[in-house]
Amino acid sequence: MGIKEQVYLYSPVFMQNLLTTLYGYRLQRERYGPAYQTRFQELADKLEKPIDVERDQLARLNTFLLFCRQHSPYYHTLFKDLNLQLPFRALTELRQIPSLEKEMLRQQIESIRTDLPAPILGKTGGTTGKSIQVRYTKEDMQVRMAHLDFFKATHGVKKECAGSVLQHRRSFRNGNKNLSTGG
Known about the structure:
Layout: H1 3-9, H2 13-31, H3 34-48, H4 53-71, H5 73-81, H6 102-112, E1 120-123, E2 133-136, H7 138-153, E3 171-174, E4 177-180
Antiparallel strand pairs: 1-2, 3-4
Helix pairs in contact: 3-7, 4-5
């Protein structure tokens, strides 16, 4: 048990409540900042107009693969060894890249990990074995939360917020649905 856990466990209840509130405030700031608001709005805007899903997927895939090549030593080497030509012109070209097995990820994590600072630590669920640590930038976490909240909002889950920290809500209208950005 780390020092933070010990301080928390041996603190009086009012101090535990304060520490929990401060931790919640920190998570709120990590998850619901400008990148969250921007991505949530982009997703809401897509509801209003038809999109070419395959073109959108291809553009996002190419952005991701170019990022991997530039920032991950593993993928830089793999793409070079495969003589991979980016950007892809079709989604079917993704078949050129071999699947990354979980054991390979464990063994090669240092070379797979990107060179960008990613201070937010998460873990996979471990449902298929030992969990794996995942690192996020603040912006990555916010985009992830925007996708999660958008999915919930468009599938009938209403986000209820309480407390002064969460009063910065913005709403988007789409027909009869209110989409709240949660932040």
